[in-house]
Model the fold of this input.
Amino acid sequence: MTAREDGLVVAAHGRHYLVAPARSESACPFLHCFPRGKKSEAAVGDCVSIERRARDQGVIIKILPRRAWLCRSDRFKSRIFASNFDQLLFVLAAVPRVSEMLLGRALVAAHAHRVRALIVLNKTDLEAAARVARARLDLYRSLGYTALEISAKTQPEAARSQLEIRLKHQITLLLGPSGTGKSTLVNLLAPGAQAKTQEISTALRTGKHTTAFTRLYPLKNGGALIDSPGFQNFGLHHVSEKVFAQAFTEFQPFVSQCRFSDCRHLHEPECAVRTAVVARKIDTQRYALYAQLLREAQLTRF
Ligand SMILES: Nc1nc2c(ncn2[C@@H]2O[C@H](COP(=O)(O)OP(=O)(O)OP(=O)(O)O)[C@@H](O)[C@H]2O)c(=O)[nH]1
Ligand SMILES: [Mg+2]
Ligand SMILES: [Zn+2]
Done:
């Protein structure tokens, strides 16, 4: 029988995986691996059990249980693209304009998987636009999230010192719209990463994201960054309605005052959450996201 060994999936291109062997004395830093069966379902961040077939090649025999994961999905199919992260770092930028729906989804995902979420506003050198984005950050700070402000390009050292202490020994998944500077941050924090970055105007003209694949980069002082392509959406179909409601922490002071104890805060009479939205005690956009997540969940489940 061929000996098995453990490894960490650092990149996934269809059925082709790049796996870092757990044993550091391994002759190759990375093994090219394929799944044993027809289905290819490993994700970046997965701990896997492999059998070597050649010096730099192997077959994935088993995926070890995951701690946290995110799927890129729609109603019909979903695929896990990153797993086993300790925290989410959502990168938004003065330009392109802040996508709060995406940010809100990331925060719900973090809550559902009980991982920390950190928000970073990049490109503060673009001052006028940064002012607009900054005004919205106060909302998230009031909800208890840490929101840092950096300019990875014009003040890299300040960005590094703000981030390094928060990323040390953690596996951090970078999320955020295309062009906000995720790969720029990877290059700043993970020496030798050489992640591709691109002017947004060029990227938008081609209609493609600069980062095409999710990839894990080890950090010098322990921990790792997982860079992902900027994208519009990811699935939360595995999250229950109850968890959705809990993830909106600003609803919590009101839920006990709803007339019905099983109130979903959508159309029920005497709903204290909706009353709070009307009274502007709850942000309208955040409530709209909650209602949308519930609608999406219903579409998938029935
Ligand atoms: N003005 C300014 N531009 C920045 C800053 N940080 C990054 N950029 C630029 O923003 C553009 C996009 O950066 P990327 O790092 O490729 O963005 P990304 O989030 O990885 O994009 P995708 O891979 O498409 O998801 C590049 O031209 C960067 O040079 C900054 O602090 N200020
Ligand atoms: Mg990128
Ligand atoms: Zn209610």
